[in-house]
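Worked problem 6 (solution included).
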Amino acid sequence: MKKTIIALSVLAMGAAQAEDLIVKIGSSAPLTGAQAHLGKDTENGVRLAIEDYNAKGVTIAGKKVKFELVGEDDQADPKQGTAVAQRLVDAGVKGVVGHMNSGTTIPASRIYNQAGIVMISPSATNPALTQQGFENVFRVMAHDGKQGPAAAKFALSKLGKKVAVIDDRSAYGQGLADEFDKAVKAGGGTVTTREFTTDKATDFLTILTKVKAQNPEVIFFGGMDPQGGPMAKQIKQLGIKATFLMGDGGCTPELIKLAGDSITEGSAYCTQPGVPLDQMTQFRTRFKKRFDAEVQAYSPYAYDAASAIIESMKAAGSVEPAKYLPALKKIQFKGVTSTIKFDEKGDLKDGVVTVYTLKAGKWEPLK
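Solution. The predicted structure is:
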């Protein structure tokens, strides 16, 4: 008799589990190639959020929900980004956290818009993303229209008035460099030269030789750490005395690793939208314990993006994008990186930018 009761209980549990509502949330970032460390960091931020909500238990429309991550590798390539977007649409995801790079996010957003799927980027900062008029596109990081001027203001007030600007010609790198360039000129500074490279290059000696001839006080690079690290080394190699400054693409432990002893305290700075990382101690500790890895850059923002999707589903009582979208537009909650709330374009409201300086081999917020 006891065996029969146990068997019936197991069957009942199986039936209950079978009735759970499975909700797929997509994530897209470069998981291979030179930016894989950033892409995996981003995806793990989404993964941690999903695990947290599954552990707490979420009930929507009377059904227990189990969230599942569908991760894709867009290789930081625009063409691959659109292919990945279509795969996520075909997989039936109810929301997407991604993409990481502006160059992949902007074309991919058109696919999600056509399919009516919510997309929240944790890190695409080119202003053009939310200027397309897509009501289902959001981001949880302040865009370059805020970061560029903030970096320029810091450079002009603390580092020098003569600035050389280099970018990698990606949607992110060029977009940030353009905003920085405009703000420097508007602030009374001088852009001594404007140079460009690619997001695959590692040899910058020709460009930097031109830069050296102009004798700038600051070199600003709009790009990511796989290029920023070698560039910093070659700046030292050529004996250029200028301070090296990057945006969020350089605010990573990997940049410090790649640059080695070519950057020292006071010789390099970076800016990143969001509150200082030292205010995210609990998240960083949990992230390290779960993945045995340090936060690179974007995992806290990816966590907040996934949380925004799930919180909106809860508020709307539906996992369908068309039904939870109105709730997402009105959402407001305290995230890891800031208070998450969106303006009418889908941009983060009241986004802040933090300046970091190199101290004891780590990026520390400038006090």
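Discussion: The radius of gyration is 22 Å.
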